[in-house]
Every structure is written in structure tokens, then in C-alpha cells.
Fold each of these.
Amino acid sequence: MAALRFAALLLWAALLTLTARKARGASATSSRFATRELSVNMTCKDNNECNAKKHLTCNVSTGRCTCVNGYSPMGPTSCGKKLGDVCDRNCDAQNSRCKLVGDKYICLCEEGLTASTDGTFCYGKPLMFEDVCDHSANCTDVGSRVICKNFACVCEENYVRWHGQCLEKIDRLDVPCNEDTQVCFSESESDSANKKICLNGFCRCVSGFVPHDGMCKKKISLLGAPCNATTHVCHKDDDGANQTLQCHNGICQCKDIFLLEDGKCKKKIDVLGAKCSPGTEICYADSEGKRRQCRDGTCQCKSSFVNENGICKQKISLMGAPCNATADVCYFKEDGNQQKTHCKDGVCQCKAEFALTDKKCQKLKSGNNHAEARFIGRIAWIPLIAVISVMR
Ligand SMILES: *[C@@H]1O[C@H](CO)[C@@H](O)[C@H](O)[C@H]1NC(C)=O
Ligand SMILES: *[C@@H]1O[C@H](CO)[C@@H](O)[C@H](O)[C@H]1NC(C)=O
Ligand SMILES: *[C@@H]1O[C@H](CO)[C@@H](O)[C@H](O)[C@H]1NC(C)=O
Ligand SMILES: *[C@@H]1O[C@H](CO)[C@@H](O)[C@H](O)[C@H]1NC(C)=O
Ligand SMILES: *[C@@H]1O[C@H](CO)[C@@H](O)[C@H](O)[C@H]1NC(C)=O
Ligand SMILES: *[C@@H]1O[C@H](CO)[C@@H](O)[C@H](O)[C@H]1NC(C)=O
């Protein structure tokens, strides 16, 4: 009885260990699979690392993932039953079948098809673009300038498929083209549709698109309309060679040398006294803001501003008002405009030789000045007398 109980205990302990080990093994394996599923010819240390689902195993003597016995590499990531491999039911080569040959089952092409050189597919004579091929010679019936690239019949380098033919591709604008043998083609445009066209013997952008950095970009003609500088160009046909718009911050705006006025981009003229034409130009300095106007055909300061060294400064006509010497002038008609006033310490005030009296800047009495001078003259003697006394 005791022996039986002991045996049961032993069995239970053994079961417990086994389950624990299994769980550990499973979790280790799954985590390894999650991080590493190695492909053909990748380096490996043990079997769990190679992708078993794709018939790969680790050849410990070479340290590389190889196809398990009876399977062949089918591209870089997996192994399968290639043409010529012994099979029991399934073949992995495209258009192949497991056929009995003598006393063995072997993967062979379906009736009438040719085996590819690498044994991974079977194919017939290509007749159309994109048909499967193995050699460029197979694509001759598709057309001239057709080659086999990545197992498909396509146009050769620098040629493009155009209405069932391979035509020479021209990807530059404004160069001569021949519509019958060449095609003006937008290689770099992200959009799939071609934006170039052979027009009157030259490569141009199709209607609605304009050339920009050698590319054709969609034309947006409306000031204020949203745009994307990658694919759009803000462009007004009326502007001709001197375009006024640009795509900036996602909106069609006036270029920097223009300023918006009355719904138009007008060219900034920033020299006072320069000629101006109000329909297309605006008198404006970026540093000043709107202080200028075009009057009588020349750029001038507006009436509440005054030209001081080519800058329009604001007239301030209130004694004691705050002012900024770089942007403002203290300007009093009754005091001869700027003759007796100035902007000092941020305040409009009388100049030094004047004093504010009856709301006007009045010249200081000369008597006061003389008294002052005499006083200073007397003080100046003191150090001299002191020096003489010491010398004695
Ligand atoms: C496997 O990789 C090694 C080293 O990169 C290389 O020399 C060898 O040719 C490769 N073998 C195959 C079958 O790709
Ligand atoms: C491992 O690779 C060596 C060298 O290519 C080969 O001789 C051997 O048969 C391979 N072993 C297995 C188990 O595939
Ligand atoms: C494709 O071209 C190769 C090389 O010329 C040739 O051996 C093969 O038979 C051709 N295949 C077909 C289907 O024409
Ligand atoms: C602009 O267009 C490009 C290409 O279509 C796109 O990748 C990009 O996200 C767009 N930019 C904005 C700001 O919408
Ligand atoms: C473009 O601007 C230049 C320089 O300002 C000028 O000489 C030329 O006449 C303008 N062209 C057109 C078409 O307005
Ligand atoms: C004075 O005006 C100039 C130009 O407008 C400005 O750059 C500066 O900051 C102003 N100074 C003061 C003290 O406001």
C-alpha cells in the first residue's frame, strides 16, 4: 500500500517537472520565432532559429539555414519542391505538377510550358507586356525594345510603354521631340499620370500644369488658395514672365518683393522719391509698414509722416508724449516743425536751448546763460589756486 502511494507520488512529481519543462521550452521557442525567422543561408546556431514553416533547418556543421532534405531554395526566404525535385503530391514551382516518371514522382512543367533556368516556374511564349519570361529573347513577340526584367516582359532602359509600344523616353522639358518615336515623360512626378506632352515638336507640360524645377506641377491661379509646394505651383497666366505668386505655408501668396493691395500683388518700391505706378506698384518699405504712398508718380511719405534720411517717421505733435527716435519725430507747426523740439529720453520735448513756455518752446534768456558762464568761470579757478598754494 505504502509502495503504491510512493509510486503515485513519484509519478505526480515527474508529471509536474515535465509540464514545467514543456512550458519553458514552448515559451523560449515562440519568443525566438517572434524575433528571428531566418531565411536561406543565414547564420544560425540551433534548429529553432530557421523558419521551419518554409522547410528550413539549421545545418550545424555549416552554421547556416538550409533547406530540409528533398526541398530546394525557392528565392531567398523559403524552400519548396522545385522542378526536378522528387515529390509525393505537391510541387511549389509555378505551373508545375507532380508527375510519374519511370518509378519516381518528379515536379515537371505542365504540358506545353518551358522550365525556367532556376527551376522555380514554368512559362509559355510571352505575347504581351508583363507576361512571364526567363530571357529577353522570349519577349521578341511582344515588341521591339522589350526585355525580360524581373521575370516580366517590359521596355528596356530609357524606353517607356506607350499605346502598346516601347517609345524612347524624354524626361526633360523644352527639348525637341518626335511624337512617333518618342514620348515626353514625367519620371520624377510623384503622381502616376504623365504630365508631359510632345507639342509642336517640343516637350511641354500638359494643360493645367506648369514647368517648375524641370517638373510639371499643377497650376493654381487663385490668390489665397491652398497649395502644396511639392506638387503645385502658384501661377497666373496674366503675370507672364514675372510671376507674382508663390506657394508659401500651404497658401498661394504674393512673392516677397510684392505686397497685397486691392486683391493684387503689387511690386514694392522702397526708395523715397522713386517713380511708381499705382496699378502695379506700391510704395512700401518692409522695415516701416504702411507709411508711404504713390503720389504724383513718385513714392512719398503719407501726410502724417515725414521723410528723414529716407525713412518715413511718424509726426508726434504733443509735448511730453512718448516717442521713439528711430521711428518718430516731434513735430510742432507753431515751433517751426522740428526746429525747437526733439525726441529725447523717449519723450517729445524742447531742445536744450529752449524752454516750454505757454505751450511753446521759447529761447532761454541770454542773461541766464551769461550768469551761468561766469559762475563756472569762477569755480575753475579753485583748483589752480590750490595747486599754487601747495607749490609755495
Ligand atoms: C551563403 O553565404 C555565404 C557567405 O555570405 C556565401 O559565400 C555563399 O555563396 C552563400 N551561399 C548561397 C548558396 O547563397
Ligand atoms: C550540412 O552542410 C554540409 C556541407 O554543405 C553537408 O555536407 C551536410 O550534408 C549538411 N548536413 C545536413 C544535415 O544537411
Ligand atoms: C526563352 O528563351 C530561351 C533562351 O533563348 C529559350 O531557351 C527558351 O526556350 C525560350 N522560352 C520560350 C517559352 O520561348
Ligand atoms: C504635399 O504633397 C506630397 C506629395 O503628394 C505629400 O507627401 C505631402 O504630405 C504634402 N504636404 C502637405 C503639407 O500636405
Ligand atoms: C519682367 O521684369 C523685368 C525686370 O523687372 C522687365 O524688364 C520685364 O519687362 C518684365 N517682363 C514682363 C513680361 O513683364
Ligand atoms: C523704436 O522703433 C524701432 C523701429 O520701429 C523699433 O525697432 C524699436 O524697438 C523701437 N524702440 C523702442 C524703445 O520702442
Note: The helical segments are 2-35, 366-391.
Amino acid sequence: MAKLYFYYGAMGSSKSANALMVDYNYQERGQKALLCKTGTDTRDGKNKIRSRIGLEKECMLLQDVCMMSDEQLAEYDAVICDEAQFAKTEQIDFLAHIVDYLNIPVLCYGLRTDFQMNFFEGSARLMAVADDIREIKTVCWCGRKAICNARYNEHGIIRQGSQIFLGANDSYIALCRKHFLEGKLTPEDPGDACRNQQISLEEIQDPDTDK
Ligand SMILES: [Zn+2]
């Protein structure tokens, strides 16, 4: 029986590389996988999955896959979807339909949570309906498992903002929960508590004389 798989991991956990390797494995066995990604992240060119280690391949967009007929889909031995966190609930449900009615395995790769540790729509739906949920692990600078995707800039971790912010790769770092909550981006980083203290000290030392 085919299954709906959700492989989740923090940023930098080689999800795209894994997706491309699975696609290659199908190809090597003389089988055909339908490779796709959600349309939100278009930094890499609209129809391409690219991993940090240099692998890349043309792909379809999930929104176009969802327009395909069962007859068209039946030509494939598997469906592989990258950036699945950005999928809509209905799109994940369509992937479940492919599994249940066409008996084609669907492998989804994506982030579990956003920069505030809330689910994305696609990951929430996959957590709810996938048959098989597996973690692709990566580590924080301290060696513990990284499960948080911290958005940051030169002032430290950014806690507020819109859920989807497609900046350069250097806008995000994967941290363990403890260091995410403390706001420690590196071993030397004093963290949020110290940063906030510094700000209030500056306010005290440099009072606004206009008030
Ligand atoms: Zn850590």
C-alpha cells in the first residue's frame, strides 16, 4: 500500500538534497517520479529544486500537479514535493488522494514550524494526515538537535513579522529550542536577556533630554 510521507526538518537539514536523491533512486530503477515544489519560494527560479550542496533539478509546481487528471498522474511511480510547508490544506489533501485512490506513494519534504515556532499550513496538515512522519535531523551550534528556524539580522533574533519572509539563506539559522528561546545565535552571543539589558542601560545613560 502506498503511503503519504512527511519528512520534516529545520533549515539546513538537507531536505531538498534528500528529495533529489530519492528522485534519482527512482530514475536509477527505471521508474519515474513526479518532482514538484510549492510556488511560494521562487528564489531558485520558478521550477527548480536546488540544494545547498549543489544538486538541482527542474520540477513542476504543486499548484499545476493539483490540476492533473488521475490518468496523467497514474503514469508516475511516485510524487515528490519539496517546500511542502507552503502547501495549502487542499493541496495536501489532493496529495492524499493520489496515495489513496491511485496507490502512488507521495513524499513531502518541508519545515515543521516557522520562525515563531508555529506550524505552517502545509506542515500542520501533513502532521495531521500523513501515514508516515519522519524527522531529518540537523544540529545547533551546541550539538543538540536543532528544531527551531530562527530569523535574524545584525541585532539578533527577529521575533515579530510575517510568517513568510524569503530572504537570503543567511537570514535564518537552525537552533535548538534552548538557544532559540535564549536568543543565542553563536557560543559567544550573550543572548536576548543581555541585549535587552544593554538597551535599557543605554536608555538610562543617555536619557532623552527633550522629554
Ligand atoms: Zn543549542
Note: The CA atoms of residues 10 and 206 lie 41 Å apart.
Amino acid sequence: MVNTVERDGQTWYECEECGLLLEDETEAKTHEENCSAEEPSYLQ
Ligand SMILES: [Zn+2]
């Protein structure tokens, strides 16, 4: 699932697998589909 995050008055879409923030919801979903959660490179 992609999380919605409000930051600096803007809505971001966060990959639940690795925590990556993307501006575009479609991009975020596409990323997450291809994301490997086994080796997270970015933790929040
Ligand atoms: Zn990811």
C-alpha cells in the first residue's frame, strides 16, 4: 500500500516497503509494485 503524507503543504506518496517519497501517486504505486522490501535503502 502507498501511504499519503502531508509535508510542506504538499501531498506525497510513500512506498510502504522502503519509505521512498514520491510526488506522483501513480509513480509511487508503480514503484511499490517493483520495490524489493528485502533490502531497504531508506528508513524513516
Ligand atoms: Zn519502495
Note: The CA atoms of residues 10 and 23 lie 8 Å apart.
